[in-house]
Design brief:
- By secondary structure, the chain is of the alpha/beta class.
- The protein has three domains: 3-248, Aminohydrolase, N-terminal nucleophile (Ntn) domain (Glutamine Phosphoribosylpyrophosphate, subunit 1, domain 1); 252-432, Rossmann fold, CATH 3.40.50; 452-608, Rossmann fold (3-Layer(aba) Sandwich), CATH 3.40.50.10490.
- 37% of the residues lie in helices and 23% in strands.
- It contains 20 helices and 24 strands.
- The model has no long low-confidence stretch (mean pLDDT 94).
- Bound molecules: 6-O-phosphono-alpha-D-glucopyranose.
- Residues 307-310, 354-356, 359, 362, 405, 407, 608, 610, 612 line the site of 6-O-phosphono-alpha-D-glucopyranose.
Length: 615
């Protein structure tokens, strides 16, 4: 949520900052801005409401010189999205400029105190308070920017990643982090700074992840030094080599990242499985689980915390773990879990499930569980992100960068890892026979090819989308393993088309929701051949009897549902526990094409951000 970019070196900063903002736009896109110290020594700030393109347009006839700068793309928290509230923010004397990701909880107290000292505020943001506080400390203590940022960091309460530059010292960027991510790229003779590695990767693959409570001094001649904010002790700098490729960050000929990411799933799931299932399906290797085998074997229960799409994957994970491991599983919204004084004890295993690895609520939930003695395990996508670094162990889903705000390939990657994990733990507990393991693990290996086959229906789904583009409401029904799939199908549609959609357990529908069914309320019903197939068929009949239109997602060759439903989308047969990996695909495509028909901004839907680093 909000993206930060910074550059110091010999090149022109502006192009690097703008390109970086484009890469980070998925984190927020209601306004953006840059601050650069120009060749004439002036500090220029350019800001514009709207997407980064608007900023580029605004800045096109301005002085864009300078080889040091910071930039920001915003997802508004304090103050509406407009030019004034956009970052960077100047200090009163205009000697400092600052960008910030996070929220400062005590900003009104600080603002009041600074106002009494004569500081005037032009924006409604919490961020402006931080830059004014730093300037106040510099002036009253007659100290350096570094010392003032360190002192200010001790006074502010909340989450922040900040970067500050100083007009009178154009050779340094000072950055600090508490609960919001910051990565520093180390180039040949320059440094890059960003909220994640995506803006950095085209310049260098060497990065340093700043830890919570650290402050970095990035100096043109002295290089990078990192200190602990409280003790001022120098931290050891640990350089990580990134393996991400620049192609992964491009659209690759697709009109939207979302479509590219949907079509990438055969490859991303192959990567996710790679090296983890033996060729004959007889063995599963997840080192993060095997190394902590005892924790899983002795677990009293498993708690999975997650948000959004990851929460839906967690619900499927519950079925998988309970089915194969016979361990009770609770699934909690991370935002609820952290504030409900949850009963967590030693012997509990908490799984934090998150694509970005940065979701503030999920991170806080895992810290809470850790403090109460749970073993915490992360399942994330973004390598080196905050959650994997805060957990005792974990597994990456390895599906590559997901840029489209609506999650697609991360969802199927999460379900795949949860399936492998449940099988492995079940086998270690002696509850999954070799034959069962081999059958399901071999089926996991078939998933990429089966998804490829589902893509043959792409044109059919595109045409179907035309029929439903102007629906105002949608119902998504599913049962068992595919009840969470129904929730996810509905979320996909809501997120990108802004059509109201509700996911519901198919049988529960008759206890209220059925009252909504009429000619104008289409239902997507997941009616694959599972252990409740006949009952789902009855649910379809109930919808049809009330004049509802039904799009059914069925197992290949199902003639019974085909004779009842208005439209049928077939998916190949596979082990029941893996069906959500296949049923997700037509629902992702349906949501995508409906949103495109409605002219929506599919990759950057209104009000959303991909990485939610605020509460
Ligand atoms: C945001 C995104 C969703 C995502 C959710 C959780 O709301 O728009 O797509 O599912 O955050 O994110 P995480 O990175 O923790 O999976």
């Amino acid at each position: 949520m909000c993206g930060i970019v910074g550059y110091i070196g010999k090149r022109n900063a502006y192009q690097i900052l703008i390109q970086g903002l484009h890469r980070l736009e998925y984190r927020g896109y209601d306004s953006s801005g840059v601050a650069m110290i120009a060749e004439n020594g002036e500090m220029n700030i350019y800001k514009a409401k709207g997407k980064v393109d608007a900023l580029e347009h605004y800045a096109s006839n301005k002085d864009l010189s300078g080889n040091i700068g910071i930039a920001h793309t915003r997802w508004a928290t304090h103050g509406e999205p407009n030019d004034v509230n956009a970052h960077p923010h100047f200090s009163q004397s205009r000697n400092l400029a600052l960008v910030h990701n996070g929220t400062i909880e005590n900003y009104s107290v600080l603002k009041e105190a600074l106002s009494q000292q004569g500081y005037e505020f032009v924006s409604e943001t919490d961020t402006e308070v931080v830059v004014q506080l730093i300037e106040y400390i510099m002036q009253t203590n007659a100290c350096s920017l570094f010392e003032a940022v360190r002192e200010a960091a001790k006074q502010v309460v909340g989450a922040y990643a900040i970067a500050v530059i100083e007009k009178s010292n154009p050779d340094r960027i000072i950055a600090a982090r508490q609960s919001s991510p910051l990565v520093i790229g180390v180039g040949e003779d320059d440094f890059f700074l960003a909220s994640d590695a995506t803006p950095i990767i085209e310049y260098t693959n060497k990065v340093v992840y700043l830890n919570d409570g650290e402050i970095a001094v990035i100096d043109r001649t002295e290089g990078l030094n990192v200190y602990d904010i409280n003790s001022n002790d120098e931290s050891q700098i640990c350089i990580t080599e990134l393996k991400m490729s620049i192609e992964e960050l491009e659209k690759g000929g697709y009109p939207h990242f979302m479509l590219k990411e949907i079509f990438e799933q055969p490859k991303t799931l192959t990567d996710c499985i790679s090296g983890r299932i033996s060729a004959d399906g007889s063995q599963i290797v997840l080192s993060g689980v095997i190394e902590h085998k005892e924790k899983f074997l002795n677990a009293n229960r498993v708690i999975i915390v997650a948000c959004g799409t990851s929460w839906h994957a967690a619900l499927i994970g519950k079925h998988l773990i309970e089915d194969f491991c016979r361990i009770p599983v609770e699934v909690a919204y991370a935002s609820e879990f952290r504030y409900c004084n949850p009963v967590v004890r030693e012997g509990d295993v908490l799984i934090a499930l998150s694509q970005s690895g940065e979701t503030a609520d999920t991170l806080a939930a895992l810290e809470l569980a850790k403090s109460r003695g749970a073993f915490v395990f992360g399942i994330c996508n973004v390598i080196g992100s905050s959650i994997p670094r805060a957990t005792h162990s974990g597994c990456y889903i390895h599906v590559g960068p997901e840029i489209g705000v609506a999650s697609t390939k991360a969802f199927t990657g999460q379900v795949t890892v949860l399936a492998m994990m449940a099988l492995l733990v079940g086998q270690m507990k002696g509850l999954v026979s070799d034959e069962k393991l081999q059958k399901v693990a071999s089926d996991i290996r078939r998933v990429p090819a089966l998804i490829q086959k589902i893509f043959e229906m792409n044109d059919k789904i595109e045409n179907l989308a035309k029929i439903f583009t102007y629906a105002h409401n949608f119902l998504y029904l599913g049962r068992g393993y595919n009840f969470p799939s129904a929730l996810e199908g509905a979320l996909k549609l809501k997120e990108i088309s802004y059509i109201h959609a509700e996911g519901y357990p198919a049988a529960e529908m008759k206890h209220g929701t059925i009252a909504l069914i009429d000619n104008d309320m289409p239902s997507v019903v997941i009616a694959i051949k599972d252990n409740v197939y006949e009952k789902t068929v009855s649910n379809i009949q109930q919808v049809k009897a009330r004049g509802g239109k039904v799009v059914a997602i069925v197992t290949e060759g199902d003639e019974i549902v085909a004779s009842l439903a208005d439209y049928v989308l077939e998916v190949p047969e596979i082990s029941e526990c893996l069906t959500p990996l296949l049923t997700a695909i037509p629902m992702q495509l349906l949501a995508y094409y409906i949103a495109v028909n409605k002219g929506r901004n599919v990759d950057q839907p209104r009000n959303l951000a991909k990485s939610v680093t605020v509460e």
